[in-house]
Amino acid sequence: MHISKDHRKTILSTLFSEGVIVAHKNTNAEKHKYIADVSNLAVIKVCQSLTSQGHVTHQYNWNFHYYVLTDQGIEYLRGVLGLPEKVIPETLKVKAVPTPIAPQNDRRGPARRGPGGAEGGFRSSRFAGPERSSFRSAPRAPAAAPQQA
């Protein structure tokens, strides 16, 4: 199948920048959903070629083709697209995780974590009082004999 250099370069640059590419099974679609002016069939065929060379891995699930770039594919696309070594796909970038801000003077009291509260565990401290600990360890009173009437 003939794919123009512009379309091929667009597909490869999108694959490199994102690290993954998704294509619907419908090969008759005029346009790819996420890449402008490129047919869905062209995306599938370029990615099939990269799969056979070992540059991407292919996963098919529920009428969608999922292509994920491998380390070998990253090096290959850097050479084809003429990109420097410092440029990496979005899937390999580490995102900074924002630190959660603790509530200040929350009127509901201290934050609870799970069913056991801040202490952890299923039972919280309200079940651990002295009256609860002595409940099972207290000696039993002898059973009264039934009275005859």
Automatic annotation (TrEMBL):
Transmembrane segments: none
Subcellular location(s) per record: Cytoplasm
Region (Disordered): 97-149
Ranges of compositional bias, category Low complexity: 135-149
Domain of life: Eukaryota
InterPro entries: Plectin_eS10_N, Ribosomal_eS10, WH-like_DNA-bd_sf
Gene3D superfamilies: Winged helix-like DNA-binding domain superfamily/Winged helix DNA-binding domain (1.10.10.10)
Keywords: Cytoplasm, Ribonucleoprotein, Ribosomal protein
Similarity field: Belongs to the eukaryotic ribosomal protein eS10 family.
Major place of residence: cytoplasm
Stated name of the protein: 30S ribosomal protein S10e
Domain Plectin/eS10 N-terminal: 3-94
Example GO molecular function: RNA binding
GO CC annotations, alphabetized: cytosolic small ribosomal subunit
Pfam family, one: S10_plectin
The organism of origin for this protein: Fonticula alba
